[in-house]
Description:
Layout: H1 3-10, H2 15-22, H3 26-34, H4 44-51, H5 55-59, H6 65-83, E1 85-92, E2 98-105, H7 109-133, H8 141-161, H9 176-199, H10 212-223
Antiparallel strand pairs: 1-2
Helix pairs in contact: 1-3, 2-3, 6-7, 7-8, 8-9, 9-10
Amino acid sequence: xxxxxxxAKAFKAPYTDIAKRLKLTTSTVADWASGRRPIPKDKLPLVxxxxxxxxxxxxxxxxxxxEKIKIEIxxxxxxxxxxxxxxxxxxxDDDGNVHxxxxxxxxxxxxxxxxxxxxxxxxxxxxxxxxxxHDFHLDMEYYRTKNHFEIVRKLADLLAQDEGKEGxxxxxxxxxxxxxxxRNVSIKVDALRSMLHFLNGGKLLGFGKIDPFEQELFDLLxxxxxxDTEPPKDKRxxxxxxxx
Length: 244
């Protein structure tokens, strides 16, 4: 999906509306979005101004996950300013007196909060990849250890914030595509959490059955002497309380 196509989708902007604002044909906008035709240099500033997004994003054939999330946050922040409204409700005090009260309701608050969390996870994953792909043999021992410690510390701090107390609001409507994206983030977070668990001396845990991913990760870390935790005696079936 090209940058233009993703931006239009994120902003819920039909090609017909974009074409009308730019005084172009719908087929022309569709060709730009699909990548069949490049956006002319003289039109690029107009497209950028229409969405309030840097021109570079519209030139891309593909956006990174971090760039996609930032664009979605851009839209949600604007939509929040547009759609946040005052709601009236009543409060009854201890003496039984009824009072009128008001609060500001943002219909995008739940999704926006989630996107900020998703962005934090994706940026942390990028940092982690950068650490793992770095040639530490070129560094002095002190800086190598410091870099490793810093990325693990940030990862631990971020995961510690996720206590499972806040989920998707019941009234929040999301698409199947968004549901799948959130599942993918959850999988990544669980994988990082498992790695930290093992690096901290944690043992394989499961109720009667070992998770295949955790088993493979555990074995891989032991194979390369990253951890020295002993595996469970019976890998086929065991109770986690026996491993404490």
